[in-house]
Write a structure and sequence with these properties.
Blueprint (H helix, E strand, L loop, with lengths): L2 H19 L2 E4 L1 E6 L25 H14 L3 E6 L7 H14 L4 E5 L5 H10 L3 E3 L7 H7 L6 H14 L2 E8 L6 H14 L3 E6 L16 H14 L9 H6 L3 H6 L5 E2 L6 H4 L15 H14 L3 E3 L7
Parallel strand pairs: 1-8, 1-9, 2-3, 3-4, 4-5, 5-6, 6-7
Helix pairs in contact: 1-8, 2-3, 3-4, 4-6
The structure holds S-adenosylmethionine and FE2/S2 (inorganic) cluster.
Length: 319
Amino acid sequence: MDGNEGDYLRQRAVAVRQAVYGRDVFIRGLIEFTNFCRNNCYYCGIRRDNRHAARYRLTEEEILGCCREGYRLGFRTFVLQGGEDEYFTDEKMCRIIRSIRSNHPDCAITLSIGEKEAASYKRYFDAGADRYLLRHETANEAHYRRLHPEEMSLRRRKECLYALKEIGYQVGAGFMTGSPGQTVDTLYEDLQFLRELEPHMVGIGPFIPQRDTPFGGEPGGTAAMTVTLLSIIRLLLPRVLLPATTALGTIDAIGREKGLMAGANVVMPNLSPKEVRKKYALYDAKICTGEEAAECIECLKKRVRSAGYTVVCDRGDYR
Ligand code: SAM
Ligand code: FES
């Protein structure tokens, strides 16, 4: 694709986003509440076999404290993200969800805690969770095998996504750009799958190697490729909620601004306590690990303004 085609694609994507969401950018407060994980995805810094990962879990009180602080700062969506940590049983998760729901009835609660039984998803939903992020990672079988050990399967991942939709969640799928083994053909399958699933959200960020993983020596994805895919996905799913991710901001100092100017309309500042941020090291050199939540949100608001958009403090539901 030459420069003119890239510009044209971006302009089209921005026009579509403008027609649906105007100049609004939605903020989601990300709470990375555990980095214990039973899975062993080859790309991921908190995979089970990474002996160098310093493991942590937030207490229920700490999670609720993050939400309190987030609410004060203007967040109306909380995203609870973590590895697949069996310590957080369904009972514990439901108790946490119910507490957040009762403390902040006007907020959306998003979960991103991996693959569960449909019955568990239903329990979280009934406890008050509204949205669920579960990237499909790749829609191509052979590529899925390249990224994950034998015990995981694309079929199961897809089943989870359909189950979540069926229950009534706003659902987010997505993938990394430039992951090892990704080709134009696998990307084509990703887009086909997104068109079929019609998720409410799509998380797209570059793959960034993490030194203690099997993919530590692989090349990472690029900002240019990520931004192009953001535009394509905006055109494919005009109403989609599309974050300009921290990973994009990590490989390019103004990556998130570029994402917003290519069709993205969500940013996800970190609300996790400062002490644990560095430990949620999915990839190397992750940004925003040294700041307080209040500093993060101020910095992001400035970035959003510099891209010509406005941060809005509401739930930012799918339209
Ligand atoms: N355990 C949950 C799950 O599997 O959906 C949520 C946590 S998981 C760490 C969140 C996302 O981080 C994954 O879906 C993956 O796309 C992304 N991720 C993991 N390792 C990464 C890396 N090295 N570079 C960029 N993104 C990465
Ligand atoms: Fe479980 Fe990455 S391997 S969160």
